[in-house]
Fold these 3 entries.
Entry 1:
Amino acid sequence: MEQTVVGLLPSTGPINIDKVHVMQSDDFGFGTQIRKSPYFDATVQWGAQSFSVYNHMYIPRDFGDPEQNFWNLVNDAILCDVAVERQVEITGPDAAKFIQILTPRDLSNMAVGQCKYILITNVDGGILNDPILLRLAENHFWLSLADSDILLWAQGVAINSGLDITIVEPDVSPLQLQGPKSGKIMQALFGDSIMDLRYYWLREVELDGIPLVVSRTGWSSELGYEIYLRNSAQGYELWEKIMAAGAPLGLKPGHTSSIRRIEGGMLSYHADADISTNPFELGLDRLMNLDMDANFIGKAALIRIQEEGVTRKQVGLIIEGVPLKGPNTTFWTIQKDGVAVGNVTSAVYSPRLEQNIALAMVSAEHADIGTSVDVLASSGLIRASIVGRPFYDPKKEIAAA
């Protein structure tokens, strides 16, 4: 979810919201064309210091020290405003058939109440988005989006499809409750029965009259839940209820952790993948079934790419030298013997691994593990080695526990 920070707030604790609104308007032009989430005022009151823009909405990107945010996540739990993960709701008798047109992942066995990580591809096999798909009912789906306008894409695809469907953006705004103590916090909120919720499954619930959907998903590679609010007027109330329930367990307000998601090899759309990236380059063959009967968008192109092979691949990098002072903000060039062979897409220092780690896209002939390369970073040329990914918990056992 990394995007350019659009403004800074000069405080590390609760702030006078009226004063903050004035400062934001003066300093970085808040306006009605970019939306605020239902949790915006709550996050400001709890110490949000800067915001990014994602899916045409502001998202908190700073609650203080990002390393402390990482430790809060991996040791206890954090609550993140991710209302920017907008939902595309697809309903109607042909909803399941239409969803299958959008993605190369075989959805024929997807049950009601299940979630799946999918790719949405264009006619060239390029990735347009990598959302979580939620099936709420037989003919009721949500696409929980990364940062691109899939609502418009889906409505455009639907025009001449001849299918009986309705596509809208519903009043739904997710929070992420992530970390090893998130299960105990969910138990305090919803009772013992919530502990039966399996990894990548969902449930419709209420919390003191607040309508919600909860799922065992998240963008952290830790044990976690996403809590989808279905009434934006109750955003502040929901945030406060969760923080109160989590206080005895060390819950902190936070933001999606660049450190943890890179450790886990999780993609950030527009950084590690975009419209020019195909699933084979990312090693995501498991998310495609090119032999199924469904004629999804991009099928012919992906079959051709499979037959011809790819010219570049995503790899992990260990970058030598002093700890990086934050995530990279440009795509650093990777060189082999002085010749450019790729780019670093996401880089950060991991305090747990005590290493600079990165995701990168390099030419296929230089993608073997153990290959030594040079990275032209902002500080100059740095040695690096290609390694496997994820960097931590490679079997994803923590999140699925």
Note: The radius of gyration is 21 Å.
Entry 2:
Amino acid sequence: MAHSNDTHAVAIPLVKNFTFTGGMRITLLVGMAIGLLSLGLTYLGDDGTHTRFWSNLLHNSVFFTGIALMAGFFMCASITAWAGWYTTFKRVWESMSLFLIVGLVFMLIIGIGVWQGWNHLYHWADAETVVTDTIINGKAGFLNSGWYIGGTIIFGGLWYLILSRIRGLSIAEEKNGNDGDYNYHQKIRVWAVAYLPIAGFGSAALVWLWIMSVDAHWYSTLFAWYCGASWFVSMISMTLMLLMFLKGRGYFSSVTPEHIHDIGKLIFAFSIFWTYLWFSQYMLIWYANVGEETIYFKHRMDHYPVLFYGNIVINFLLPFFVLMRNSTKRKFGSVGFIAFVVFVGHWLDFFLMIKPGVLHTAHELGGHGGHGGHAESASHGSHGGHEAAGHAVEHVSNFTSGFTLPGFLEIGTFVGFLSLFLFFVLYSLSRASLQSENDPYYYESLQHHT
């Protein structure tokens, strides 16, 4: 049965070029306008520090930049591993990966805001705190605006340059190559191999700066893995939804239930891997009762219970039980629904990573909590850090709009960023042939079956 599906798919005439219609453009432009309006209303409705505005910008910028990073990473890993199954839709990953340039611009805007003191996203950016807080002072060689901006430019710039080079070679292969010609593919492989360690190690450093340092006293050796897994599941879910959207409009007829099945398996497998990392961070830290680490989870359990427990339900239990059946992964409706739920669920995961720490910092630096807690930590070391964090909990225990749970402005901002991401990806898809027929693995992908 699987083989007959593949044969049928190959027989369908392939639409080689995607047309980015005016209707699609208008819809996405309206979505971007909603996002811009939401950000504007958030800024105008904020207090003097505009913490809600900056945290919404950070949240969505990090989320969609990470999706682009992972699209490039998995594409390069597949190229390096001699994989061929994805080749028929590789243009989707190429287009998604190039969104890096847009995401990095947003991250640089945030970095400049940190440098100029326009926001209170990070406790380590406050000069007085660096002097009075022993823990943050000890991390000051890395946690500073120079590293934040410089690391974003250096690592992010290298990522984009490599991925844009791979994209260029891929298009040149389609235009100038011949069936069975490996010259272009060998060059692509060299760039793919170079990208993997740069993306792997560079993303860990930037994850520490962009996200983990929001809770400046806390650290986890698994945090970069945890964020990477969350980004990866989001990227795979977005890939599936994009393919379903495009197939519904007559494109990618070469993508069969066999390809969808494999994408569903990736969502299933990496949802379990994400859960393993979630459990490892939580349980091992809790079991050891390390003060400056445990407080990260205690604060979220006590004051963000809906998101904390909902996180594991949405991002593990639902995909696990729905996708456990092999046949479900071949049903577009079922796997598409789970992809959407998981995509939103991991957006909420990043919300939970960022918002509590930002609100803590806003209370401390914005005059609500002062610097007393962190001055105390200067004389008590890591134990003082625990007390300081615990002290901050007293100030943020009540419901805070846009922080305890996403509000309409957060949802509107998400819609805007999602529309911008899709506009960029669809525009990139329209700039080249959807099918890379001169890729040496193209016909293997057409005949793919599991």
Note: Residues 27-446 form one domain.
Entry 3:
Amino acid sequence: MSNVTGPLYEANFVIENDVLADADLWLADVVQRALSTDGVVDARVFGSDTDAQGKGIRTCQIQTRDDAAFDEHVDNLFAEIDAEAAQQFAANVVIQSRVMRSDDLDELATNESLLCLNCGTRLRGQYCGRCGQRSRSRLISTWQLLREAFGDLLELDSRLWKTLIPLLSKPGQLTKDYLEGRRARYMPPFRTYLVLSIVFFLVAFFEPKEGLLLLAEDKSVATAEETHEQEQEAKALASDKQAEVDETLKETYAKGKIDKNIVGDSSANNTSFNINFGEDNDNDNDNDFFGDCEKAKISDEQNAPDWLKKRFTEERAKKICERNKARGVDSFQAAIIDNIPIALIVLLPLMAMVLKVLYPLSRRYFVEHLLFFVHFHTFFFAILIVLLLFDRLVNRLSVNGMISTLMIIAASLYVPVYLYKAMRYVYAQSHLVTVPKYLILLAAYLTGAIITLLGVVLIVVLSA
């Protein structure tokens, strides 16, 4: 149709197959007569579909020059079309008509566009019907930027809060709703997982009070003598602690346990080996956790596999030991904690595969089982955030610490119960069937968690 603002008359014809050929000829004649009529700027017939009963469907559109021409033809041309159809085809043709008008070009303000600035779609309201962007092109204020950045956290009716409530209180509800198509009301699963994981690590490893100490003036200026006394006390305390650690390590080694070695496989054929990152020394230094690096090597090298001996030489073992020793225990522990999110992400597909094996007849795809554990890990992060915040609140209020202990015990009991109830709700099987599967899944989860955490430790050691 031509790009004008005049009204458009549209008539839809549902035609029986017996008279379909005659009706097509008649509609072609209607178009020709409409085009030759004063006040009509365009006319056409299109459509070759059929409805569920096999009847033909045709659409005739006639566009007039303006409202005045339209009003004139309502009683003339359009009325004649309806009358001719009833006379020639009777009940074999059913007509449904409507009137459509183009948007008024004067409705939009001068600073607004007729087309969506994001995707270029024709606008027919305040929001684009294709991408959802608002039609206005006004400048964004600072307040608007803050609302967009923290809207999901600060607005009580946001999707984040609507997601957290069922996540914490209704095991399996989010997973089942998502699989059944009820998704718009909740925040997407992986986005929720990332948001809560980031919030958890911010809460766990950032203390606002410590961060603000740099902005405060240090009013406790100690004298040289006081400083010397404090240093001596700190050294004595560190020496006592190191002595306790050394004594514990010696007792551990006496029992045959190895803390500083990566141990290989052992069997009846005496094929055991271990990678020794250094032996003990008597220095009272926290950085000596890896021992004497000159003695770092592969013990029982003849039993180690060839690929390991080629890639893990004695020289490389010494370098790894020296690098880990140089960065200290605190840095070593911090590196392990930093890699825990990666371990949890690696654990997700492994546990999804276990669910796939446990529910072979569920007709669910692998990604659906993966979604189950994404929600479970998200719930786990949420529980940890609640516990950390509650513990800090108790410490600030100087309340009895037993309350925090009771909260931890309650959460420890709730997490496995949550997992069981989620399995029951999502997979809808009886207690008799779910209990053994739950025990298998729990054992697999604990095993997978231990393996992934050991993998993190190994990566941290070798990447130093």
Note: The chain has a mean pLDDT of 75.
